[in-house]
Amino acid sequence: MISNITCNANIRNTIFSTLNIANIEGFHKVNDHQYGCIIEDDNGIRRYARIGVIVAAIREDCTADDLMRAEIDEYQAKQVKKEETAKKRKEKAEKDKAKRAAEKEKTKAAAE
Question: pLDDT category, 108, cuts 50, 70, 90?
Fold first, then answer.
C-alpha cells in the first residue's frame, strides 16, 4: 500500500502539472505544497502571492464528493448571509441618515 504522504504528494504534483505552473514565468516552487510569485497590486506595491494545493484527508463519515459539495454549500450560504447583512446595514444607515436630517430640520425650525 502506498503511504498517505506519497499519495498526497502525487496529487499535488498532478495538479501543479495540469496547471503547468512550473512553466509560467515568475512562478517559483516555494515548497512541495506551494508555488509563489511577486505581483504588483493596484497601489503599485509589490506583493507576494502563493498558489497552494491542500489535499483533504480521507474521511470515514463522507465521500470526497460529499465533502466538496458541503464546502461549496457552506461558502455559498456564507455569501448569501454576507449580502443580507450588507443590505440590512445599508438600509439602517439610510434610515439613520434620514432620522438625523429630520432631527436637524426640527432643531432648525425650533430655533427660528
Answer: confident
> Could you tell me the CA-to-CA distances from 28 to 48, 64, 65, 66 in Å, in that order?
11, 29, 31, 33
Query: pLDDT digit string (tens) for 22-46?
Result: 899 999 999 999 999 999 999 999 9
Q: What one-character-per-residue DSSP string does 79-100 give?
A: HHHHHHHHHHHHHHHHHHHHHH
Cell 496547471 sits on residue: 19
Report domain extents, the chain: 1-55, 60-112
With b for 16 or more beta-carbon neighbours within 10 A and e for fewer, the 40-65 pattern comes to: eeeeeeeeeeebebeeeeeeeeeeee
Q: Are 38 and 26 in contact (CB under 8 A)?
A: yes
Which runs of consecutive H residues, i.e. helices, occur in the chain? 4-19, 64-111
The CA distance from 34 to 21, in Å, is 10
Pairing of strands 46-52, 34-40: antiparallel
